[in-house]
Design goal:
This protein is mostly helical and 174 residues long. The protein has five helices and no strands.
Length: 174
Amino acid sequence: MERDTGQTTENAMVDLQTENSPAPDNFLQKQVERTPEGHFVKGQSGNPAGRAVGCRNKATRIAEALLDGDVEALTKKAVSLALDGDPSAMRLCFDRIIAPRRARPVQLDLPPITEAADIARAMAAITAAVAEGAITPAEGAEVGMVVETYLRALEASDFDRRLKALEAAHAAVS
């Protein structure tokens, strides 16, 4: 097969049976299997390598090119508008300056939980802390979920202990 120079030659025909096909020049790109009908094999990506590292969206590149020389002026204008009291500009500036609020550690005195019966006292303490305003309702719900998870662990441990006792008793009888 000769290279395509813009002119048609006799050898330019592609014979797929003899593997004389126009394969990509870049053999580093992984070729994926296809069915005899030419469809991709189920469960395999048509682009297993994914997007190249560092490759950015065309719209992002265009926006960066448009703003390239004006970033400093736009920033100064946004700050100026925020200082003049524009709520949208203030929100924009604060969103960029102050990081989003993360969950804070909750200081809460819970009674010790050693068995399932102790959960009621712990939940009462959480409810009282929410009612007093010591923690927010969302924080109370999260602490409650932790207590509930601990309860499930206690129940699983208790079940395992009782099962082993039954198995030992059954083995002693047999």
